[in-house]
Amino acid sequence: TMNYKIKHVEDEALISQIDEYLDDTFMLFSNYGVNSPDLQRWQRSAKRLFNLFTEECAFLQQPSHSL
Its domain of life (predicted)? Predict the structure, then answer.
């Protein structure tokens, strides 16, 4: 992952959010039980990641103004 981060700094926000989501997912599901704070942290992390993808898709769907 580090090599990708160095080569693709424009994706730093996405990479960081994916890392956070994966960490939160591991923390949530690595225990025998699920507690409310971990579940809420995971849900917030998932929402932030989804929002990044949504913003990226909206940006890519904008018409190009260059000729």
Answer: Bacteria
